[in-house]
Specification:
Structural class: alpha+beta
Strand order of the largest sheet: 1-2-3-4-5
Oligomer: single chain
Distance between the termini: 15 Å
Number of strands: 5
Radius of gyration: 12 Å
Largest sheet: 5 strands, antiparallel
Number of helices: 2
Helix content: 25-40%
Strand content: 25-35%
Order of helices and strands: EEEEHHE
Length: 77
Amino acid sequence: MEIVFNSPLLYIADYPAQDAVEVIDKRSGVGAFMRDETARRFRTEFLELVAHDPEMESFDDFIDHYQALLTQPTILH
């Protein structure tokens, strides 16, 4: 496991051995564990965002795009 991003709004952990990404939206207290193609797409889009527009407002817009997948309450985090 590798923590890729940790801010007041968003937490992202990468699990390369499982080809997975864990994403937690701290604003709403929900998250998702994405695997395979979904995880690869998320990684690619996230790295592109960080490379071109690291403003916090951009992270809000980015995670809102994945909001439908973020359904698990983050009780233990």
